[in-house]
Amino acid sequence: MTHFVSAEEERRVRANDREYNEKFQYASNCIMTSKYNIVTFLPVNLFEQFQEVANTYFLFLLILQLIPQISSLSWFTTIVPLALVLSITAVKDATDDYFRHKSDNQVNNRHLLIITLIIQVLSWMNVRVGDIIKLENNQFVAADLLLLSSSEPHGLCYIETAELDGETNMKVRQSVSVTSELGDQNNLASFDGEVVCEPPNNKLDRFCGTLYWRDKKYNLTNQNMLLRGCVLRNTEACYGLVIFAGPDTKLMQNSGRTKFKRTSIDRLMNTLVLWIFGFLVCMGVILAVGNAVWEREVGSLFQSYLPWDPPVDNFLFSAFLSFWSYVIILNTVVPISLYVSVEVIRLGHSYFINWDQQMFCSQCNTAAEARTTTLNEELGQVEYIFSDKTGTLTQNIMSFNKCSINGQTYGDLTRLFVLLSGEATDPLRLDFTPFNPLADQDFCFYDDTLLESVKVGDSHTHEFFRLLSLCHTVMSEEKSEGELVYKAQSPDEGALVTAARNFGFVFRSRTPGTITTTEMGRPVTYILLAILDFNNIRKRMSVIVRNPEGRIRLYCKGADTVLLERLHPCNQELMNITSDHLNEYAADGLRTLALAYRDVSEDEWETWSESHRCADKATNCRDDRLAAAYEEIEQDMMLLGATAIEDKLQEGVPETIAVLSLANIKIWVLTGDKQETAVNIGYSCKMLTDDMTEVFIISGHTVQSVRQELRSGHRSGQLHVRLSGVSVSLHLGIHTDKEHSGQFALVINGHSLAHALEADMETEFVSTACACKAVICCRVTPLQKAQVVELIKKHKKAVTLAIGDGANDVSMIKSAHIGVGISGQEGIQAVLASDYSFAQFRFLQRLLLVHGRWSYLRMCRFLCYFFYKNFAFTMVHFWFGFFCGFSAQTVYDQYFITLYNIVYTSLPVLAMGIFDQDVPDKRSLEYPKLYEPGQLNLLFNKREFFICIAQGIYTSVVLFFVPFAVLSDATQSTGVPLADYQTFAVTTATALVIVVSVQIALDTGFWTVINHVFVWGSLGSYFTIMFALHSQTLFRIFPNQFHFVGSAQSTLLQPVVWLTIALATAICIVPVLAFRFLKVDLKPQLSDTVRYTQLVRQKKRKPIGRSGRLGARGGSRRSGYAFAHQEGFGELITSGKNMRLSSLALATFASRHSSSWIDTLRRKKHTHTHTPPSDTSQIV
Amino acid sequence: MMASSYNAKEEDGHHSGASSHGGAGAVKSKKPDNTAFKQQRLPAWQPILTAGTVLPAFFVIGLIFIPIGIGLFVSSNNIKEFEIDYTGVGESSPCHSCAKNFSWNSTTPCLCSVDFTLEQPFESNVFMYYGLSNFYQNHRRYVKSRDDSQLNGDRSALTSPSKECEPYRTSEGLPIAPCGAIANSLFNDTLELYHIDANGTSNSIPLVKKGIAWWTDKHVKFRNPGGNGNLTVAFQGTNKPVNWRRPVYELDPSDSENNGFINEDFIVWMRTAALPTFRKLYRIIQKKPSSTPTLPSGKYVLNITYNYPVLSFDGRKRMILSTISWMGGKNPFLGIAYITVGSICFFLGVVLLIIHHKYDTRNNSADIPN
């Protein structure tokens, strides 16, 4: 992000006039996401690092140490760890930035054609605002462009905006009519219109501006804009004027800067570090007071042997200096390596997530990715999951699954299995190609009786599929013969038309007035008289066509509830059978549609078309009058049958949801879909079940109605609680929520949600929603998704996770504590905004229950031990203060102080923090309750912290006073006293290293080779390094640096010293051991029990009651036709405006190919080596 | 770290990924390696605290610690130790006048003698210590006030000692050798021991003054400048520490191996004590070749050349005689501590065993509640 044009109020862009545009200094199209270059790296990076409080603090300590009167440690004890920390961070930042540089360069150097008087090829980064550039089919749009003209009629062009908003369906953009006539490049080069428009902003669906050209004004809207990140489709070429470039583009404006997320452990850690600072200051003050007293009472008398340093002339000043000296010595209670170690551990956990084979999706060749390395342990604390529906829970693939034709049901696999009983083979997928060369290869159907019925020419079946091939608003594209691609507004329609296509009723092309199909290999053209388009109220659509014989027929498909009412009475019997089938389908979670037709006589058509025309032309209440007209003719229809479409859930979704809810995680579905769809999916993924007491549906449009609905839901919730004998109001918070949330579900609509999210109602909403087991919010806007997440964050203080795959989920992903992106079909916006990404919803259980749980456990154990070991280490100085005149004399050798945290004790605890496991991954999936400690934050909280600290202080007491008591009178076997300072230092240090090593050995629950190497290696390195530092060789070279020459061997050869160390170790460890044993023995945690059973191999595992409940069928019938996302192309088709695809197809049909099916077949034989790309993903 | 979430590489990557579905096989599988390390399936030992492991551990610790403690206690009790305070605080004490009248400037040494009786004979080698109390050799300013380069015989450090030695770095414009507060406060009382035998004659007991320092100190850490040649020449151009009566090269003029920086009394003093009450080895009384005890029981006289003032800061001076065993001098604490810890472990083991048997819940919960 280079710069923002500050306070740009409006933007003026003149085409082909760089000089003019340069006056405004608009951002160029060069994108810079990198932060440093070679020269600025060191200063900028250091500056950034010293903005971290911890680093500055250590710098401050370093400066303090340079004052000789204060310096109680030599300078290198601080600078070595600080330099280490700074350089590790610098290396990490440098690598990150290198990759950003690389990707920036790659994008900036993409080439495109630019038209400014001379036509030239330029790289993306050289494009300026006001340039006119040419885009070709399937190219990425390089900047935000005003569409000027395109190769297509009416200046139309088609774009796919998956990168931008996640929607995969194609969108139409149209240029302003005057510019669309400009056409060729020469005209464009002399185009000199001026655009005045809004300043750069991040609203994807809004643009407002004016084009001034040849003294005329033209209004510009979002319809005229091509945004960076879109891909041009089905358009040979188009030309656009660059309005926003580079960082000003809506894509970049939208990506913004990611909020830096911190985990709750992070926040706790920061609080604790502050507390420790407070503690440090307290100890400093105590010791300073001690120093004052000592200097006054003893030190002043001791002056003949030990005079004060020159600037010190009284005990108060001495005490002041000793305060700072002690701050330096005791600073190791907050070791600088804490933050780096935490980073390293998280990095390790992130790599484990990336490496996990069980979160790898082989179909899409995507491994899970931890995109941020800072949130891992929070994955183990999630309480609320907010999930998108489409593409997250579902695959967004509709498949034609079953149908009922004239009372006969087809596609029922259980029936097939019965037929095939005895054979273990799966039912064979039908091969349509021998029967129908136009069939779609990817279409799956297993029931061959339906195909037989088509083949034998059953008239009902034929009429059924004819309806499917005619009654829709799908557009087709036929690039080469037989290579049909359908573009549907709703995936349901695409699935139905594809089904018809495979059963021999191939929809080939349409014009505003005709529909051309190939029926059983025979081309037929129907005259399209009217499309009675779908809308949410009608829940059905019809077409009226005239067949080649001249008969007029109305075909209608729609929600069974509305369609069955409009049947001719003679259908009663058929209706009952079909109704049973519909119920069956709905119970399987399928989306159903009923199909019917009606013959329309010529007279009837004449009168109706007249009334229809009137309604169409009406200026007021046009929609109502049209609906009435439609209603009029959609009567007395004859039932054909019903279809059942499967909105395919992603693999393992119901199981995942079941496991997650067993882990006490609440799942909210937030979807932009309609209520019916959302509820349907809620049933099919078993979030909603029919044995729920009540599903509250809140869909009020006014504040009052929403409040009322919420309250009634609330009341019945409370009532139920009272009935079950517990008269606790649901207001009371989590505990009551948890116990009684089993029976209710809440479905709330977007417009109601808007009211519910208002300040005065939000608590009411939260309490009602949290009393429910499942919450589904439908028709919500991206902003509302974020608001819901924020609401829970605010009211529940719980860790939230948002999972989604589309651009509409970005806001929610960003505002939740953890954002997870599904790297599916809907572009990558969600993934880019997310913290974790993977390909399938079901990986979520592994991410949370395995990786998250482990991460949390490891981080907690790491922190506990880390604080413990540093308190044990540092507090010894405090006790020693009372015996050395509070002079800030250290107990240990300065090298030991330097190396303790970075060498002697760093690796074992890192190994534990990275590799530790309490129970294997399989068990944590098997017993989701194991997840609970994380949610309740049991493993590391203030209490646990104080326990660690207490243990550390206890250890320090033992480590100081045991050697004190033993050594003060002891002598070597040569009679030399052992109570000299160096022997004492070596003894205490050795005891400390051994005690903390034993402690880490106790804490480590999972001893891999690495743990062994690190623990034993650390001990070994301690002795090796100590002997080296105390060696004569080093002393001879630097006699002034290595005062401890000979101490190691002299000390460690003494049996008394080893006896002292053993004694200290026993006193430190035995109580811990006893305490832990009692805890495990008397109050075992679930993980202890699981671990124990694992150990004794008691394989009496209870099967979890998962499968039984999952098999339960939902009962209520859920109609499928409401699921179309929006109204179809109906209007566009009949207006003829948008007929480019089909007209193109028609043209190619007419001119180059004969439309006969035989010819098609013949041509296919010639070109059969060329396999048609089966691109069904475009349909769905 | 703040970072833009827009990443052009991924924009590209997605596109190529989408278009590559057709060309199967061209795409390299991104499937993570199936290694035990990456899949977190490394073979591991998973220790768990069970009654079967913890309780025996307690008993074992108890059973090991108690005998060791008893051994230590017994051998400590067999050690004979005699201690006498000769500071001269009380009016009646023989060194009272010396202690009171002392001044650094007095040229005539003050002498006093203390009589004492050993009740039991001291066998084997007897070690003679001087003990100081309330003397803060472990004070930070004191500890650092030395120059190890100088003491190691470094010529440049001899003439310009380290700044750490201030204010005992120079005197009268000349560098001090050895510099610093530690050297300046060298303990300079002289102790002599006489045995009064049955007929009242006092026999001087030979005190060995070598072999009292660490080997590394004597042979590595401390070296005279210019080897052990003429020390007077070597130390020319330096001044003695202000409190000293004699320059460093006259610490033991009789023995060139024990003079200058390598004088063992000096080395012993320079090895600072960890605590304000400490003892330092002064002399060794060698075992006699005959079977008679080194120090038979009876009357003794300690002759003190009282040079070292401690009363000003309420310090104490002691003389200690002690024999030694395999584990050093008298040390009752270690033995008692071992016995106590061992007993507690054993007791804990018993208590835990009872608790485990009474309240154990695990056997009933073989299946795990979910």
Please provide a written account of the structure.
The complex is a heterodimer of chains A (1180) and B (370). By secondary structure, chain A is α+β, with helices and mostly antiparallel strands. Chain A has six domains: 38-107; 127-255, Calcium-transporting ATPase, cytoplasmic transduction domain A, CATH 2.70.150.10; 267-334; 348-392 and 650-719 and 742-840, HAD superfamily/HAD-like (Rossmann fold, 3-Layer(aba) Sandwich); 398-416 and 428-648, Calcium-transporting ATPase, cytoplasmic domain N, CATH 3.40.1110; 851-1078, no CATH class. Helices cover 47% and strands 16% of the residues of chain A. A nine-stranded mixed beta sheet of chain A has the order 14-33-32-31-15-27-30-29-28, with helices on both faces. Chain A has a nine-stranded antiparallel beta sheet with strand order 17-16-26-25-24-23-22-21-20, with helices on both faces. In chain A, strands 3-2-4-13-5-11 form a six-stranded antiparallel beta sheet. The radius of gyration of chain A is 38 Å and the shape is elongated. Chain A starts with 10 loop residues before the first strand and ends in a 14-residue tail after the last helix. In chain A, 51% of the residues are buried. Chain B is an alpha+beta fold. Chain B has a domain at 88-122 and 136-272 and 293-315. In chain B, 29% of the residues lie in helices and 16% in strands. Chain B is built from eleven helices and ten strands. Chain B has helices at residues 8-19, 51-77, 96-101, 140-143, 148-151, 155-159, 181-184, 215-221, 231-234, 264-270, 332-359; strands at 81-85, 110-118, 126-133, 170-171, 174-175, 190-196, 202-204, 278-285, 298-306, 316-322. In chain B, the strands form three sheets. Chain B has a four-stranded antiparallel beta sheet with strand order 1-10-3-8. The radius of gyration of chain B is 34 Å and the shape is extended. The two termini of chain B are 41 Å apart. Residues 1-26 and 363-367 of chain B have low confidence and may be disordered. At the A-B interface, α4, α8, α11, α28 and α34 of A face α1, α2, α4, α5 and α8 of B. Chain B: The chain crosses the membrane at residues 48-74, 333-355. Chain B: It is a multi-pass membrane protein.
